[in-house]
Amino acid sequence: MAEFEEVSRKSKLHPKPTGLKLQYGTAGFRTTAKHLDHVMFRMGLLAVLRSKKTRSTIGVMVTASHNPEDDNGVKLIDPMGEMVALTWEEYASQLANAEQEELLHSLNDIVKKETIDMSQEARVIVGRDTRPSSESLSRAVFDGVQCLGSHFHDYGLVTTPQLHYMVYCQNTQGSATLEDYYKKHSQAFLHLTKNAPVHANAQRRLLVDGANGIGALKLRELEAFLQKQLLVALFNDGSTGKLNHLCGADYVKVQQKPPQGIQMEVGERCCSFDGDADRIVYYYTNSDGHFHLLDGDKIATLISTFLKELITEAGLDLQVAAVQTAYANGSSTRFLEDTMKMTVVCTKTGVKHLHHAAQKFDVGVYFEANGHGTVLFSRAAEEQIHQLAKSPDITNEKKHAIQLLDNTVNLINQTVGDALSDMLLIEAVLAVRGMGVQDWDAMYTDLPNRQLKVKVADRRVISTTDAERRVVSPAGLQEAIDKLVAKYQQARSFVRPSGTEDVVRIYAEADTQESADALAHEVSLAVY
Ligand code: NG1
Ligand code: ZN
Known about the structure:
Blueprint: H1 5-11, E1 29-32, H2 37-54, E2 57-62, E3 71-77, H3 86-97, H4 103-113, E4 123-128, H5 134-146, E5 151-157, H6 160-173, H7 178-193, H8 198-201, E6 205-209, H9 214-223, E7 231-235, H10 249-255, E8 270-273, E9 280-285, E10 291-294, H11 296-313, E11 320-325, H12 330-339, E12 343-347, H13 351-358, E13 363-367, E14 373-377, H14 379-390, H15 396-411, H16 419-433, H17 437-441, E15 449-454, E16 463-465, E17 470-473, H18 477-486, E18 492-497, E19 504-509, H19 513-527
Parallel strand pairs: 2-4, 4-5, 6-7, 6-8, 11-12, 11-13
Antiparallel strand pairs: 1-3, 2-3, 8-9, 9-10, 13-14, 15-19, 16-17, 18-19
The protein binds 2-acetamido-2-deoxy-1-O-phosphono-alpha-D-galactopyranose and zinc ion (ZN).
Domain Alpha-D-phosphohexomutase C-terminal: 474-524
Domain Phosphoacetylglucosamine mutase AMG1: 173-281, 295-433
EC number: 5.4.2.3
């Protein structure tokens, strides 16, 4: 283990608190920033091993997304910009939880199991969000990378999806810059909106809640490439407020109310990013003061409808499917299946599950209700679209549709859900179709719903099945939920342990808000 001498020396500077156990959860490790220094160092080590194994660039993102500012987290990004493979999540937990004296043994164990050639070059790229703890924690990642004799490149402050995209570009094109990212997405947006009816131009004003995070900084950078074709009024830009505090996509979605710090007029289109800008939700208030939320389900509906129409108009034979989780509003599922005649798949929570399911289709539109999602095109579908867009022998009508489709493909960050690219896509679809936010909202009416969370002694005693829609243990809980659900009309409810917080989440929907609230409350009592 001579090659690990430096690891042995440096790891003492990043000691693990004895007995602390953490799990690589829904989106990597997440906990109070104070407990993460050793985890960051070790994720630097693991990223090097993963890079040697895959002979590719690997990403390490330091963020805790929508969690409070004092938390932090880290996740690894695999060569094509996707979440790290499942077996490596287990190695991550193993390495993070090894006591100080077991660290080298644990490292060596992974090297052996994966038959890693330690002489292979490695390359790791690192990014971070705006949390006060992120800078020093990313330095711990650099330490881990360097003590295995490897190189890293620090992208500094970036959104999570930007880093995913950088990993993808490094491995497919050999280089990756943020400027390329902005150019690619803004050009596609400008091409698409050129096709908008003239009156729609006047409506291209958007209020954005930046959650006081990285998304606000990066939106400012993106704006410089948009040639004033999208007029953004940015709120919660981080200059005064606290990250995710009373603002951001998670707050708006869960509380079902506008963020603090935004000044919205009746009918104005608004959106919120989360703390690392991989989620987005839209909303507006109508003339009688009602708040209307357009969440990930509404976004998926808008985008999949647009894509399906273009595919039909272009005369292509491509299957468009939607992937959702149990949190998807029942009305959205019914609309997609019954009205849009689309295949709808339900997976477990966490984008890695949705992403994998979406890969099985020509065009897979996946969104979590909280606004995290994107669209995946199979390689064959993408090739077909690009080829047809270049073909001289098609009718004008088809040509128009295929060019819109081609630009839409270019506007999407297929590596992961991306608030900036999703925002541009939504704005472009609304502009091209000449739709306002109310027209979009009118596609279907959400069932009233409520999300709650409760702290229990040990959330892991709850296990689930059927894409988390039914409880397996503890015994009797599912029967209790079934009985409560039966009391209400159009009702549905489920519980599951969170993968990012120490809580159990409860979801309920029903025909009225009072019923949804009551059902969620009753189910929460059954969980205790
Ligand atoms: P958990 O804490 O496992 O529910 C939350 C979100 C996920 C996903 C992850 C990662 C809900 C109900 N859950 O996971 O959808 O986005 O955070 O950020 O919104
Ligand atoms: Zn996020």
